[in-house]
Design brief:
about 0% strand
């Protein structure tokens, strides 16, 4: 899954955001298990980018909840 920018995340509906969040977490788990088993992932920088994108989605969701 591609790395999402804050504007792209805000443009999504909540259901689409939750689906993206699930996909990103699944991909992060896969990369972390590769790293844990001693295999080097193809793109080690992707782990950091995925973690940041997950944090962005959670932050934007929390912002919208607190606005209501």
């Amino acid at each position: 899954m591609a790395i999402l920018r804050p504007k792209e995340i805000r443009d999504q509906k909540i259901k689409a955001r939750l689906t993206s969040l699930q996909d990103l977490r699944r991909e992060l788990t896969k990369l972390n298990s590769q790293k844990g088993s001693g295999r080097m992932p193809e793109n080690p920088g992707k782990i950091k980018a995925l973690r940041r994108t997950i944090a962005r989605i959670l932050t934007i969701n929390q912002e919208e909840v607190s606005k209501k």
